[in-house]
Amino acid sequence: QVQLVESGGGLVQAGGSLRLSCAASGRTLRTYVMAWFRQAPGKERDFIGVISWSDGQTYHVDSVKGRFTISRDNAKNTVYLQLNNLKPEDTAVYYCAAGRRGGGNWRAYDYWGQGTQVTVSS
Questions:
Q1: End-to-end CA distance of the chain
Q2: What are the backbone angles phi and psi of residue 76, rounded to the nearest 5°?
Q3: Which residues contact 66 (CB under 8 A, 6 or more apart)?
Q4: What percent of the chain has pLDDT over 90?
Q5: Closest Cα to residue 65, out of 92, 84, 93?
Q6: Closest Cα partner for 35 from 66, 11, 6?
């Protein structure tokens, strides 16, 4: 079993930054891919990107490249999502997820955190 706990969300003005954390515990995650998704009210859960625990390779969707960055700290079993130059349209609940296959389909992920709210004011 894997437990994922997100933190770091909050209210920020447009142009501001936040760093979200996803602390993982439970079984070893070295063979897993960690992903970040977000979901705004009334909208689909959108894929942001992934990182591999084993080698740290990342992928970010084009819409967030240059503003959002995924990283990890193996010693802390924690994955991060750095959010820069935030815009009101970034307002959403942000989730981390763990899965063996990875990719942009949220159904491919086995474990999910509870989510953390990010609200960007204009």
A1: 40
A2: -100, 0
A3: none
A4: 85
A5: 84
A6: 6
**pLDDT value at residue 57:** 95
72 CA to centre of own chain? 11
Residue 26 confidence (pLDDT) above 90: no
Please report the beta strands in 8-44, taking only residues with DSSP state E, as ranges in sequence order: 10-13, 18-26, 33-39
DSSP state of 68: E
How are beta strands 111-112 and 116-121 bridged, if at all?
unpaired
Residue-level length of the chain: 122
pLDDT tens for each residue of 58-79: 999 999 999 999 999 999 999 9
> Of all helices (H) and strands (E), which one includes residue 36?
strand 33-39
Dump pLDDT digits (tens) for 93-107.
999 999 998 899 999
CA distance 9 to 117: 5
Contact 41, 21 (CB under 8 A): no
Side-chain half-sphere CA neighbours of 99 within 13 A: 18
